[in-house]
Amino acid sequence: MLILPTAMARTVPPGPGGTAAAAPAQPKVDTVGERKAKDAALRYAPGARSTRLTVREPGSSYVKVHFASVKLAPGDRITVADPSGREVYTYHGDPTAARNRGDSPHTVHGRTGFAAMSVDGDTAVVTLHAAKAHHDAADLTRRGFGARVDSYFRGFTEAEAAAANPRPFSVCGADGRRDVACYQQSHPTEYARSNAVARQLVKGLGSCTAWRVGNTNRMLTNQHCMESAADLKASEFQFDYQCATCGGNNPRTGTKVSGLELIKLSPLSALDYALFSVNDFASIQQYGTLYLDVREPTAAERIYIPGHGDVKPKRLSLYEDRDGGTYCKIGTVASGVNTGYLCDSSGGNSGSPVLAASSHKVIALHHLGGCPNWGTRISLVHKEISGMIDNNPPAGVK
């Protein structure tokens, strides 16, 4: 997510050869949704193989259902799905009590129970599936079997998100960002590297960007996107959320995973990074990974930034201005811990990787907007996490 100054920033030209430019302002996570209370129960019905509850918020960008409790008879399951069945998440009981084989990821939010993975769109269909018809349904209900929904998160419309997040000037001129699919043929390496980048839904309410780093189960985002282990447990990460065609507005559902272990934090006052791992790691290995370019940036070198600004499907910031114009480049080599550039970004881009075009490796961790926009120099991050990641590409991989 882009880190947003508290007031509109003026465009300040970067200093020559790496002199300090405008002082970075304080970042924040954009608010992209809200939590709403609900009191609804799914109970066993005599002789029925399923009962259903629909949670709908017209116009919402996602719905994420929170269960206060789930207690099911052996072999039964709860599913949370979009109406088309494109996304389906399955639970055989309360996963916070005991992990059930084959269950989908979940998140926890500082209260009893758990939240299912979000479904894209404005409707979630919650279904209790019975392996057999229960003729003792009334008795099961008396014994506390079934499920209770106590709340849900819903994603803001585009207009609601804009109203909730006054933002600085971080699109530096005309917005040069385009769907990553637009560059599949013309810039195949940049397109391929973007696959390792995921959209982060922070506590059901906020948006950032995160990405795989190295060969093992490790990911990076900003610390201001993940301030604690509790924040990690309440976040989900969506890979391959990108349009299938250039400008098609047809994003794929991709793969959603939840957070596992918070490995190391550096606070906003220092380097502003969070290193962590995820559950169901095998499911995201297909999207590849990124490696760190541990040198210092150089003035005017080409860069590019894949990310999920404005909670949108993944876009690639390759040009500073209009598509096909001046390529993004480093403008301010060093200002404190940061490096600066005029590559476009917006709320949701915080945590995005800034890649050097010469190596296609990460040279900075984007975390602040304002034109110039800013990323923590990855050379500094690497010094602190080098023993916790495997940053050595396999033979034959650059």
TrEMBL record:
Pfam families xref list: Trypsin_2 (PF13365)
Gene3D superfamilies named in the record: Trypsin-like serine proteases
Listed GO biological process terms: proteolysis
Protein keywords: Hydrolase, Protease, Serine protease, Signal
Its EC number(s): 3.4.21.-
UniProt keyword Protease, yes or no: yes
InterPro entries named in the record: Peptidase_S1_PA (IPR009003), Peptidase_S1_PA_chymotrypsin (IPR043504), Peptidase_S1B (IPR008256)
Gene Ontology MF term list: serine-type peptidase activity
Spans through the membrane: none
Keyword Nucleotidyltransferase among record annotations: no
Assigned protein family: Belongs to the peptidase S1B family.
Protein name per Swiss-Prot or TrEMBL: Serine protease
